Amino acid sequence: MDILPYLKEISKKTPSKILLVVLDGVGGLPREPGGPTELAAASTPNLDRLAQSSALGLYTPVFPGLAPGSGPGHLALFGYDPLKYQVGRGVLSALGLGIPLGPDDVAARGNFAAFDPEGRVLDRRAGRPSTEENRRVVARLREAIREIDGVAVEIHTESEHRFVVVLRGEGLGDAVSDTDPQVTGVPAKEAEAVGGDEPSRRTAAILNAFARQARQILADEPVINGVLLRGISKRPNFPALGEVASLTPAAIASYPMYRGVAELVGMHALDLDTSEDDPDRPRAKLEAIRSNWQAFDFFYLHFKKTDSKGEDGDFEGKVARIEMFDRLLPELLDLGPDVVAITGDHSTPAVLKAHSWHPVPLLIFGPHLRNDAARRFTEDEAQKGILGQLRGTELLPLLLAHAGKLQKFGA
């Protein structure tokens, strides 16, 4: 359901502040029957204390049974029905890097990958190389590939194994399938025009040529010797969250994709100190919120590594990232937000090494809460919570209501 037109009618500006914390992929599964999930295994005294004075529930970002990508998962958190407001990952990454996109440009998100001599995917993320190694490989590709079939080809480093390809030229379409098979042991897919239109066929042909040329250029690399492409799209036009919900929203995220989705909905992405070794930059994010606390009334705070550790199958590593956030939580609460929500954009169980369809725990702290039986921020405890089972766009209205930012609906 598209809730945005209704929120626009009844939202109002108030001085209250909302903090939405997204622990990316935080939902998990036990390693063995009856065992704890990553959240349950983590030592989280601060989250537990907050849970005992909050309302909890389980949150399904898109639809039961659907394992969402990060784009749809985040759009739902911000109140945008992801089944209506669709955008490819390439656009989000490009925007997050500050790359301008014209109406005819097509962007694709790329993974540097490792292939065996027969062309089968060995590692979809090429061992998660450093961002500096990424820049070196991108420089090789830039030097060799500047244009294909009269279309300018731009290649940009995103982070670690991730990069962005932007095609600039006339007659391009974006109804094109991914080349990433999402599993190892099989060859990369060919990009295909999903709708069969000529502009999309042209884009597919150019991207297939790019992938072939990349394999040739990188054939002598010890690990990174090919690319996988997904999220191929043009930039859509979405209503701005600030106008819809009478908010002045800010995004605190270090990874370009998440800064991109924030920009797409009209958030201001705060600058971060890039000297911190941790790619999630927890201290830099805290300082960014502190220094901008008076300027905004909605803060979206993103942490990525809970998801990355889940995708790597690193159960203990994911537990450690949850515990890292728990240590940061008291300082966030000391800022005095009126409403706090903590959840994820999807689940990424370490046992699956992938995004999954499992609901994510959701915690809301704020005024006017009813009694809640949940005592910890875990999947099992969230099932006891008063919020029950929420879906997608149901979260934003709850946050606005608890913050006193909604007027009565209807006569």
What would your notes on this structure say?
The relative contact order is 0.25. Strand 9, helix 9 and strand 10 form a beta-alpha-beta unit. 32% of the residues lie in helices and 19% in strands. It is an alpha/beta fold and 411 residues long. The two termini are 21 Å apart.
Short description:
The chain has 411 residues and is α/β, with parallel strands linked by helices.
Keywords:
8-stranded mixed β-sheet, 411 residues, alpha/beta, Alkaline Phosphatase, subunit A, 6-stranded antiparallel β-sheet, 14 helices
How many structural domains are formed by the residues? 2
Give the % helix.
25-40%
Mean pLDDT over the full residue set: 96
**Strands of the biggest beta sheet: in what spatial order?**
10-9-11-1-12-13-2-14
Strand tally is: 14
- In the predicted model, the low-confidence regions spanning at least 5 consecutive residues are none
Which word captures the global form?
Answer: globular
